[in-house]
Amino acid sequence: MSLTVWCPLAMEARAARRGSRGEAKVVCTGMGPDRSRRVEPQSGPVAVVGMGGAVVDGIEPGDVVVATEVSAADVTSIGLPQAEAVARGLSDAGFTVHTGPVASVSKLAVGSRRQELADRGAVAVDMESAWLLERHRGPAAVVRVVTDTPAHELRSATAPARIYRALRTIRRLTPVLTREVG
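User: That's the sequence. What structure does it adopt?
Assistant: Structure tokens below.
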């Protein structure tokens, strides 16, 4: 069964489509918990791919985070056993990869909110993964390209360049995911 790539934002989905070259089905799911919960669960392998924020030091803009688990305030932690294999495949392909828990939140996590999430064990944050995967029962991966960190907030003059770089990275990493997850 071929891989389905769920991308919350249209620009992420366009980048993933360009990278997949038709080898994966790419679906734009919409941003946030409400839209994520409306996505029809898949029985085959899925990868949630998009941009995210780091909540700990040592992860830089442009780095890739592969979630070992995802959770949200209203979603029990979902383990992702393929994380190490996916991370190894991305690392072997030349990406700077970090693994760890990803927290899904309903609003942008900036300032002290990042530290709260880090204190709970998260290494990165997004706004969809836990809700997208809460009903999914097949193989899954969550891959987020970091656009913002505690030292580089999303609302800054350099944010557009970091977003552009993240989209290029999404395009380049999608073929790796079709091999590792699909």
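The mean pLDDT is 94.
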